[in-house]
Specification:
The chain has 625 residues and is α/β, with parallel strands linked by helices. It is built from 21 helices and seven strands. A seven-stranded mixed sheet has the order 1-7-6-2-5-3-4, with helices on both faces. The longest helix has 31 residues. The relative contact order is 0.09.
Length: 625
């Protein structure tokens, strides 16, 4: 375990109490909800004279209804008041609700327990926004993915643990009394952990809290829609919950009907799916390199669909009665478990970077309200998921494997739409794949690039892949300035257009393109973006750094922004360089080669010049080509 491992956060006071607080809350929610449904199903045989199926769906509706009604108020409170204080309020409310629930369980007052299930939904509604909104305040930027991964892992493990614990309690002599003690004890433990959550010290006390639930929910949706990229990430997260709810809801019938399994098979399917999500969440930290990496989101969505398709095509043709051991030991049934593990794993890869992106890209002043909007959309998508399941399975008459096939195909279609709407996903995916297949990139000094505000990057130019290497390493989106003729290359041209690259050409041959390029550069810098230029004006033909042209002086004369000199090492000799002949036309000699990207100290725009920057880049590059 290295110093950057996300697991080290579990030993730090700024994160561990929050993790334990949310874990105990998720565990308690699922223990209470599942033990209640099991007691109603097996101990009473019904409730209020209604069939079991109706009661189960009513319970699900009562738990999810508060997310529609109160998310607006929850987001406001989390933004207005100090967040650790809000967390303690919420956990105190959980103790009160669980004390009443304990009495109801002890004496078998099941009708009142449905009301308390609604109140637990209210409590979860108020905890959700503050739980996610506090993360960027207690974690560093390079810890945000790891922190979100731990939260997601903890949530799904708690869901699994609560579900299994409810099943185990039902096997005891007095499940009601044990459950009564258990839910209250968990609520108390959650509050004790909440008391240790660090104080953030940030409040917006001037904000007025509106107590109009439905109007505030509508306002939340409009607030989320203000940032198009954030809105689409919210939609993508909610789509994950749509898929997750669709799979989890069908597991009992799927196990019984299509696998002819006993109750242990249901538990195994749930455990496999949940463990997959936990493992995928944990893998995000390593695959993303401790940063918010949207490039692994398309990998996640593709994996969800591929394993979903594989599940459909590998269903046992003639199932025989099974238990959990047969699912694991028989190759035909084991493939079903492997596919569910894969769907969960890639679901974890899919969701964690999206949560981190929403937190990072949302201003702190209304971050909790945007998270609250996300919770509204999650709840809405899960309701639609249930309705779709009823229509597909009950009205249209699809089998559960056919329903899973439809979900896999829908996922591909919706993912394609989202990635077309937010090109950053597709671009980051391409960059991630290239930087993890063709090259092994080591970078140094990139922390010297300012976190915000306009900045100009200048770098030596060795290959056609330089821009993608830099884009994959620099945390901020970069606008590159490149020869307009590169856009004629079918694949690279499409990638660079996607990256909003600024085309430039000779002042003598294409004056219009030349002048338009400097206008675009100035506009991008004026908007506070990062612009990268290769002042040599073309790829090196001998591996050495050529003379920097005057374009950099023209840019800085118009807008003297900070300049960060950068140098690429190890790219000379690759398929994309001019070593041994024109680039892209000679035999690729080096794949998976180790390359380096180094950044120097920022130079004030007023003091920078083409000549001085050329020397800085040469010093950084040294003798390594």
């Amino acid at each position: 375990m290295d110093d950057h491992s996300q697991f080290r956060l579990l030993s730090e006071r700024r994160f561990l109490p929050l993790f334990l607080t949310q874990f105990s809350g998720a565990f308690n929610d699922n223990l209470f909800r599942n033990i209640l449904l099991l007691l109603i199903t097996y101990a009473t045989g019904g409730l209020l004279g209604l069939p079991i199926d109706v009661v189960v769906n009513m319970a699900a509706f009562l738990f999810i209804l508060p997310f529609f009604l109160f998310s607006g108020i929850a987001g406001q409170l989390a933004d207005k008041y100090e967040k650790s204080r809000v967390i303690r309020w919420v956990k105190l409310a959980e103790i009160a609700i669980m004390a009443l629930a304990g009495v109801g369980l002890w004496y078998g007052w099941y009708e009142s327990l449905l009301l308390l299930l609604f109140l637990m939904g209210v409590q979860s509604t108020f905890f959700g926004p503050v739980k996610y909104a506090i993360l960027p305040q207690v974690l560093e930027d390079d810890e945000l993915v790891g922190g979100n991964a731990l939260v997601e892992m903890g949530t799904f493990v708690a869901i699994l643990a609560g579900t299994i614990a409810a099943g185990l309690l039902m096997g005891s002599d007095q499940p009601e009394k044990l459950a009564a003690v258990g839910v209250l004890a968990l609520a108390v433990l959650g509050y004790l952990a909440a008391r240790k959550v660090p104080v953030t010290g940030q409040t917006h006390s001037e904000m007025t809290v509106s107590l109009r639930p439905l109007q505030e929910t509508w306002h939340l949706m409009r607030l989320a829609a203000e940032n198009h990229s954030v809105l689409l990430c919210i939609m993508a997260i909610s789509w994950f919950w749509f898929l997750g709810a669709a799979y989890l809801t069908q597991f009992p019938s799927f196990a019984q009907t299509d696998l002819m399994g006993d109750e242990t098979v249901v538990t195994l399917l749930l455990a496999t799916f949940t463990i997959g999500i936990a493992l995928g969440s944990m893998a995000c930290e390593r695959l993303s390199g401790h940063r918010i990496e949207l490039g692994i989101v398309p990998i996640g969505s593709l994996g969800i669909s591929l394993f979903g398709l594989d599940l459909y095509f590998n269903m046992p043709a003639n199932p025989v009665p099974t238990d959990w051991w047969m699912i694991l030991s028989d190759s035909q049934y084991r493939q079903v478990a492997i596919d569910l593990l894969g769907i969960g794993f890639f679901g974890g890869l899919f969701i964690v970077p999206l949560y981190a992106f929403v937190q990072k890209e949302t201003p702190e002043a209304w971050r909790a309200r945007v998270i609250a909007a996300l919770n509204v959309f999650n709840a809405l998508f899960m309701v639609v998921s249930a309705i779709m399941g009823i229509l597909m399975l009950g009205v249209i008459g699809l089998s559960i494997p056919e329903f899973f096939l439809v979900l896999s195909i829908m996922n591909l279609v919706i993912a394609g739409f989202v990635y077309q709407q937010v090109p950053d996903f597709a671009l980051r995916f391409i960059v991630w794949v290239l930087s993890h297949t063709i090259y092994r990139v080591r970078h140094e000094g990139l922390h010297r690039i300012p976190e915000e505000g306009p900045v100009l990057l200048v770098c030596n130019h060795v290959t056609y892949m330089d821009a993608l290497v830099i884009a994959g390493a620099v945390r901020r989106p970069v606008r590159f300035v490149m020869d307009y003729q590169i856009f004629r290359t079918p694949i690279l041209g499409a990638i660079f257009r996607l990256a909003k690259t600024i085309p430039i050409g000779s002042r003598n041959r294409v004056p219009d393109i030349y002048n338009a390029a400097f206008e675009r550069i100035d506009e991008e810098l004026d908007a506070g973006h990062v612009v990268c230029i290769f002042p040599e004006g073309g790829l090196t033909t001998d591996g050495e750094v050529a003379t920097f042209r005057s374009g950099v002086d023209i840019i800085l004369e118009r807008r003297p922004v900070p300049v960060v000199p950068m140098a690429l090492r190890g790219l000379w000799g690759s398929f994309f360089s001019h070593c041994g002949g024109p680039a892209l036309r000679h035999f690729p000699r080096r794949f998976w080669s180790r390359i380096e990207l180094l950044a120097g100290e920022p130079v004030p725009g007023q003091k920078a010049s083409a000549e001085a920057l050329e020397q800085e880049v040469k010093n950084l590059r040294g003798n390594s080509r």
